[in-house]
Amino acid sequence: MSEQSSTQNVVIATLPDVTAPVITHCAPAQTAMDDSSTVPDFTGAVTATDNCTGASSLIITQSPAAGTVAYIGTTAVTITVTDASGNSTTCTTNYTVN
Q1: Angle at 52 between CA 79 and CA 56, to 5 degrees
Q2: Which of 11, 77, 10 lies closest to 38 in space, CA to CA?
Q3: What is the pTM of this model?
Q4: Distances in Å between the alpha carbon of 41 and those of 9, 30, 65, 92, 96?
């Protein structure tokens, strides 16, 4: 009887994450009835997913920042979601002061 030997090679490849998060729900627009107001925090109303970073670890920011003075008219607020690899995506909502 002949003995056979077997060799098994394992290759582990680490691929970079190049896929941006997906915003599944952008914050809804808001309106204030005041001649001078500050931009609210829209980030809590945003939901997003990512292929590598868990939803609770995604970084959600807005510009202009919450607390920025907004006067009569409409201010566009850009929401940015960034994953752990630095990939990001944006959506835009509005803050209107009447």
Answers
A1: 55
A2: 77
A3: 0.84
A4: 52, 11, 7, 13, 14
